[in-house]
Amino acid sequence: DLVTGKKIGIGSVIDGLYRLPVQVASALISGTSRQLMGVEDRSSIMRWHERLGHLSFQLIKKLFPRLFTSVSMDSFTCEVCQFAKHVRASYPISINKTTRPFALVHSDVWGPSGVPTCRGFHYFMTLIDDYSRCTFVYLLKERSE
């Protein structure tokens, strides 16, 4: 415990992370959560939400139920979380429809691949005919090909 200096548990390092046995971790959460959290108010809940990587308020309530004794969980919103959930609007439907094959061809180049093919290709190019949706894929060794 950082406040009292007492040993409150024994853990071990596994793959570079400190791990506590389940009973020690649950005792830490329930027994010292008031000391760790500070005052039970909206700002401390938001602070822990941000510190834990914008963890959902439902999970924060499971971890630290005493934080929510005087505050309703439904009253919390996070602007960052709301923006992160936004999705990009879809592209508008084109009013210019092609009337014959190969009048309009869409292309894209992907790469470089971290692992080349057995013949040394690092990129591929796709060509899509707008009229027929016929797709061609070409392997490239260099992006400039």
UniProtKB/TrEMBL annotation:
Coiled-coil parts of chain: none
Domain GAG-pre-integrase: 16-86
Protein name listed in UniProt: GAG-pre-integrase domain-containing protein
GO molecular function, one term: nucleic acid binding
InterPro entries in the record: GAG-pre-integrase_dom, Retrotran_Ty1/copia-like, RNaseH-like_sf, RNaseH_sf
Gene3D superfamilies cross-referenced by the UniProt entry: Ribonuclease H-like superfamily/Ribonuclease H (3.30.420.10)
